[in-house]
Write a structure and sequence with these properties.
The complex is a heterodimer of chains A (about 110) and B (about 120). Chain A has about 110 residues and is mostly beta strands. Helix content of chain A is about 0%, strand content about 55%. Chain B is about 0% helix and about 50% strand. Classes of the chains: A mainly beta (about 110), B mainly beta (about 120).
Chain lengths: ~110, ~120
């Protein structure tokens, strides 16, 4: 079983600045993946970034990067050079045994 | 290439009725998953199907059922609707070929179900 906890219900950032969204997880699985998904107001869930738990190297995708601390069960998302289009609900997500377990989400506001 | 499609976009039902939601996966994907997203919450896993077989089930009552067709499209059925079933129902597809491993799942736009 997995649990995913996002302790920041809301965050805000100025355009062009950097913001970090926090996430902790717990799992009894040895083989699992971690994801960040974003859900803009239009509601389509979009994959932001994916991290394989067996990899020590942190995943990066352009302006998005993660800080994966396996021993601490921490998986934070850093967004650099924030853009207005980054405004959305961000879900930290754990994946194992074919299913995804979502946190409650962090609503990110980007201020111009 | 078309992404995951879902129909209908919106649906209004009354308590006790039955509803069928439909999903077409990305071309080449063989696995479909269903999630329920109540307003203000993260999605909750309902089912995953791969090659027409149920591969995973979440903690939902037997009123919820699903099936997958030979073309890999899928239906989610909910019987005896309750007010609490009002939610956004999301479908996600993945290639599904790696046993025991969670493939990246790609989501459709969802069906908004309102139960009155």
């Amino acid at each position: 079983a997995q649990t995913v906890t996002q302790s920041q219900p809301e965050m805000s950032v100025q355009e062009a600045e950097t913001v970090t969204l926090s996430c902790t997880y717990d799992t009894s699985e040895s083989d699992y993946y971690l994801f960040w998904y974003k859900q803009p107001p239009s509601r389509q869930m979009i994959l932001v970034i994916r991290q394989e738990a067996y990899k020590q190297q942190n995943a990066t995708e352009n302006r998005f990067s993660v800080n994966f601390q396996k021993a601490a069960k921490s998986f934070s998302l850093k967004i650099s050079d924030s853009q207005l289009g980054d405004a959305a609900m961000y879900f930290c997500t754990g994946g194992s045994n074919y299913k995804l377990t979502f946190g409650k989400g962090t609503l990110l506001t980007v201020n111009p | 290439d078309a992404g995951v499609t879902q129909s209908p976009t919106h649906l209004i039902k009354t308590r006790g009725q039955h509803v069928t939601l439909r999903c077409s996966p990305i071309s080449g994907h063989k696995s479909v998953s269903w999630y329920q997203q109540v307003l203000g919450q993260g999605p909750q896993f309902i089912f995953q199907y791969y090659e027409k077989e149920e591969r995973g089930r979440g903690n939902f009552p037997d009123r919820f059922s699903a099936r997958q067709f030979p073309n890999y499209s899928s239906e989610l059925n909910v019987n005896a609707l309750l007010l609490g079933d009002s939610a956004l129902y999301l479908c996600a597809s993945s290639s599904g070929g790696l046993a025991g491993v969670t493939d990246t799942q790609y989501f459709g736009p969802g069906t908004r179900l309102t139960v009155l």
